[in-house]
Write a structure and sequence with these properties.
The chain is elongated and about 65 Å long. The protein contains six helices and seven strands; from the N terminus they run E-H-H-H-E-E-E-E-E-E-H-H-H. The termini are far apart. The N terminus is likely disordered. It is α+β, with helices and mostly antiparallel strands and 278 residues long. Strands 1, 2, 3, 4, 5, 6 and 7 form a seven-stranded mixed beta sheet that branches. Helix 1 packs across helix 5. Strand 4 and strand 5 form a beta hairpin.
């Protein structure tokens, strides 16, 4: 199995439309865990960068025997978001807002969604406005979990697609804009402690569930610029957004697990435990 990455992935159309759905996401009345995604299959983009040598001001210290005491880990987790949003160049963490994805290829030939093609130059705005509703860390069980809420995500990209969506034809290439509102994501992980070279958290498995409160999308240049057909399909997609999301659910959750596993390893791998666990 080829290693997926945040910069370039070959995904089913399901993952793509809702990586247009943190991308149709997240990134999140749909539940159900995807199969675990092994972190070793994820390309860690900053693996050659050094770990932090000294504790930065934004890094809260928690107790190892009870890191959740007084919501310490939750506070530590949410206090990292401003730094992630602008990037942490000394450890190779790239800016999270906007989140930029080079390309996503689409290949799905069965079911209500039958599409081929892809998306390029994906630009996701809004992740830095994330609210951490819950976060928990357990060194005995080796579990790390969190619930996130994002009020609004805006995704811009260039698309090239051909196929059918809910049995209607879709042909076009041009710009696509998507807005997601009230995105909620729940993440559960299994982690190990690895010498990288200092001991740090390494996420091994991840499960993701999500809820999207509302979706609006618009595809330019459908059917070779036919305005009437293009307007009709855009109207149909927006009126049937819930059905589209339902069709994409399991693949989206798996796609989000791919993305989040890479993103959070890029952060936690570079935070030696001795800097934030006492």
């Amino acid at each position: 199995m080829n290693a997926p990455s945040v910069r370039r992935q070959t995904l089913t159309s399901s993952r793509s439309l809702l990586l247009l759905g943190v991308t149709l996401v997240l990134l999140p009345a749909l539940l159900g865990f995807s199969e675990p995604v092994q972190a070793k299959e994820i390309i860690i983009r900053n693996k050659d960068f050094p770990q932090l040598k000294a504790k930065p001001d934004w890094l809260r210290v928690c107790r190892r025997d009870n890191p959740n005491d007084d919501s310490c880990f939750k506070k530590m987790f949410e206090e990292t978001f401003p730094s992630i949003a602008k990037g942490i160049p000394e450890i190779g963490v790239q800016p999270f807002d906007p989140l930029r994805i080079e390309s996503v290829q689409v290949s799905r030939g069965t079911g209500a969604l039958s599409l081929s093609g892809g998306f390029k130059k994906l630009n996701v705005k809004g992740p830095s406005n994330t609210t951490v509703r819950r976060a928990s860390l357990d060194f005995n069980a080796h579990t790390l979990s969190f619930d996130l809420e994002i009020p609004k995500l805006k995704i811009d990209a260039v698309y090239n697609l051909k196929g059918n969506v809910l049995l209607l034809p879709l042909v076009g290439d041009g710009d696509i804009t998507m807005v997601l509102k009230d995105v909620k994501t729940s993440v559960t992980t299994k982690f190990s402690v690895r010498p990288l070279p200092e001991d740090a958290i390494f996420i091994e498995e991840m499960k993701v569930t999500f809820l999207v409160g509302g979706i609006r999308m618009h595809l330019d240049n459908l059917f070779q610029g036919n305005q009437v057909l293009g307007a009709s399909l855009n109207l149909f997609l927006n009126q049937n957004a819930n059905e589209v999301v339902a069709e994409l659910r399991s693949d989206l959750e798996s796609g989000l697990a791919d993305i989040f596993t890479g993103l959070w390893n890029e952060l936690f791998n570079k935070l030696p435990l001795k800097l934030w666990i006492s």
